[in-house]
Amino acid sequence: MLEACSKLGEDLLKMFLDEIEADIIIEVDGKKIKAHRCILSSRAKYFANLLRANKPDKNTSTISLEGFSYPAVHFALCHIYSGAMNIPKDCNISELALLADMLNLETLTAVIVFHLKMHYCHFFHRPCLQCSQGVVECLPLATVCGLNELRDRCIYWLGKNFTRTWPNKSFALLSEELRDLCYNVTFHNLAINTVIDMTLNCDRLLTTLPQLKWTEPIFGMITRLLQDCIHFMAKNFNQILNSEGFLALGKLECYCIEEDIISAIELMTPDVACKSYESVTQLIQLTDTVENTEYAEFTQNFVDLLHKISRHSERYLIQNANKVVHCQSWACLAPQVQKRIKDAAVIVFEFEKPTALHLVCPVYKEN
Ligand SMILES: [Zn+2]
Fold first, then answer.
1. Residue of 167, 93, 92, 94 whose CA lies nearest to 127
2. How much is the CA Rg of the chain, to the nearest whole Å?
3. CDD domains attached here (predicted)?
4. What is the Å distance from ligand 1's center to 119 Cα?
C-alpha cells in the first residue's frame, strides 16, 4: 500500500489512481497509464521539457518510456503525485534509480538513496553477511546514476572493512577501476598503529582464501597491500616498534608476521635501521628486567621475535656499515655498539673483499 507524504499528496494520488480528468497517457511496456500534464510538468523537469516541445498535439499526447518496466514507472508517477516513499517490493531499485536519473527527479533520487542506505548498506554499520553484499551491489549503481555521496561512502566502507568485504565473489566482479578506488582507501588507512594488524590480516587472507578463478584479482589486491605494508614498515620501523599495534603482538600466542618484518628490515634506510636497533634493544632490556609490568606479560614468542629483530637489524647495520656510519642516527648508538658493528663490518668486508672493494668502505679508512 502506497503512503502519501501528506493529506494533499493523498488526494493527488487518488486523482492519479482514479484517473480523474486525466489528459495525457504514458505508455510503458505495452501498458497505458493515464496522468495529468500540469502535475508532470510542475514536478519533473524531464516531462516539463518534453511537454513544452510537444504543445501542438495537446489532446492526443502520449509519452512513451521505453526500456522501463511498468512497476518502476508506476511508482515513479505515484511519487510525483504524492511524494510516496515506500518503494514496493516488485520494483527493481536499479531500474528505478536510472529512471529517476533520466526524469531528473531529485526527490525520488533522495528516496532511492535512503532506501539503498537502509536496506542494502544497513547505514554502513559493521559488515554483516547481507550488507557486505549489499554495499557491493550499490556501488556500480551509485556510480552509473551519479549518486556521488552514496558512491563515496560505499568505496570508503569497502576499503575500510577490507578483511570482510574483499573476499566475496561480488566484490571480485566489480570493475578494476572501482576495486582500485577501494584499495586506495585501504592504503590510506595504513598508519603506525594499524600496519601490524593489516599485515596480519593480509597473511591470514592469503592463507585462507580459496584458490579459484574468481579469487585471482583478490589475491592480487591482498598481495599488493601486503607489499605496501612491508614498505610502510620499512620506512617507519623504529616508530612501529614502540606502537600499541606492535606491542599488542606481545599478548598473542600465535601469529605469523616474522617473515614480513624481516623483509621490512632489509628495506630500511640506514637512519631508520640505527633508530630501530636502539628501540628493539630497549624493548629487550625491558622484558629482561621489569617484572610485574605489562612488559613482563609478553609471550615467549614475542620475546623471541624481539631477539630475531635485533639480530636482523644488527646484520643490516653490519652489511651496510659504509652508509650507516655516515647517517644522522649513527650517533644515537652506544659507543660499544658502534665499535661492535665496525669490527664486524671489517670482518665481513675482508671476507667479501673481491666484491666489496669498489664500495670504498669508510670503515677501512678509519681502522
Ligand atoms: Zn549489515
1. 167
2. 32
3. BTB2_POZ_BTBD8
4. 9
